[in-house]
Amino acid sequence: MTATDVRPSPDAEAMQAAVAAALRTVDANIDAFGDGYPADTTAAGHYPRRPPTAGQPAGGNVGWTTSFWPGMLWLAHDLTRDGRYQRAALSHVDSFAARVSNGIDLDTHDLGFLYTLSCVVPADRTGDRRARDAALAAADHLMSRFLEPAGIIQAWGDLNDPRQRGRTIIDSLMNTPLLFWASHTTGDDRYAAVARRQAAALREHIVRPDGTTFHTFYWDPETGVPLRGETEQGHADHSCWARGQAWGIYGFSLNHRHTGDPGLLAAARTCADYFLAHLPADHVAYWDLEFGDGSGQERDSSAAAIAACGLVELADCLTGATRPVPGDAADAARYRAAAGRILRSLMDGYAPRSAAESNALILHGVYDKPKGVGVDEGNLWGDYFYLEALTRASVPGWNSPW
């Protein structure tokens, strides 16, 4: 990499322009989707309404990504303090309350993603009782997926499905904050105890000795014996799926914030150092870190956006440590600088140039390359974490939903 390849961190003018462009897209999508939900990814650059499935109509609240839409609305409110964004975000509470009370598409650990952004935020910020009750019900349902004595939360599917039984995935680190919130809200440590065991199991087994991560890992659900690591969305079982590594940066940092466990902080640093050492010249990862410039493979802008947020979270953990060690301050500065370079690259090279080009906030994401799903498209989680990265950089003392 030459000096000309290094993008500087965003300056105030560039940040203001990027935020304004993102908010214009959010505004247009409020008009387009209202209380409904976009699909997981764009198709030829534009989000359609979520297809009808699981007995729900087009635009219905099914799948693991729907909460990223109200999550973006809350971020828009954080950026502007404009009450119309809060009203738009609150309009989704009824849908999420109905989803959990009616048992619609709940066989997933992603209840943490779904209910943290859609219901914990309004419960904490506005005192919305229905949102609080729905989030606690979701936390109870997530607890039902905890497998003793393996000490893990099963990721996907019916608990009796032999293909899914005993499997957890690195994304689960982003779902445990719902459980920490439930313990804080109720005073019942059962929720946090499960979250602590889940994070510890992943720290022990999903991070490889070389600093890479497995996407998924299996335990024997009856004996608790760790079995094997695999991938679902990465290039190969032995490779390092970029989005999973980004989840590791952010997720281990978040779990450290909730627990103070130094082993989780060390895992976050390990994930971060490997991720940063395997970025291409423009700092936006290819969809698997096995690939680099000249590979002809696609980027995953969503992995970059997640990592940008996670690196700032990690830096905050280091600077806020009650017992800092030599090198913490320097590493925190290094991680913040890297987050700034990634964000600047997304702003300059991955945001759409116009609404005609796309109604996503950032382009060139990858959902599931092995299955050919959402390849080189925008996606809801990429949009959310890009807007979160902009918010972190723009709003001093921002109040994280996680």
Could you characterize what this model shows?
Helices cover 50% and strands 6% of the residues. It contains 13 helices and seven strands. Strand 1 (146-147) and strand 2 (152-153) form a beta hairpin. Helix 2 (68-80) runs parallel beside helix 13 (380-394).
Main β sheet profile: 3 strands, antiparallel
Instruction: Walk across the major sheet and give the strand order.
Output: 3-4-5
Q: Round the mean pLDDT to the nearest integer and report it.
A: 96
According to DSSP, the number of beta strands is 7
Please state roughly what percent of the residues sit in beta strands, choosing from under 5%, 5-15%, 15-25%, 25-35%, 35-45% or over 45%. Answer: 5-15%
The appropriate CATH architecture is: Alpha/alpha barrel
H/I helix tally: 13
Kindly provide the name of the CATH class: Mainly Alpha
The global form is: globular
Computed CA radius of gyration, to the nearest angstrom: 20 Å
Order of helices and strands: HHHHHHEEEHHEEHHHHEEH
**Termini, distance in Å?**
35 Å
The domain count comes to 1
Give the proportion of residues in helices. 40-55%
Helical/strand content category: mainly alpha
Seen as an oligomer or otherwise, the chain set is: single chain
Which properties best describe this structure?
402 residues, mainly alpha, Glycosyltransferase, three-stranded antiparallel β-sheet, two-stranded antiparallel ribbon, globular, disordered N terminus
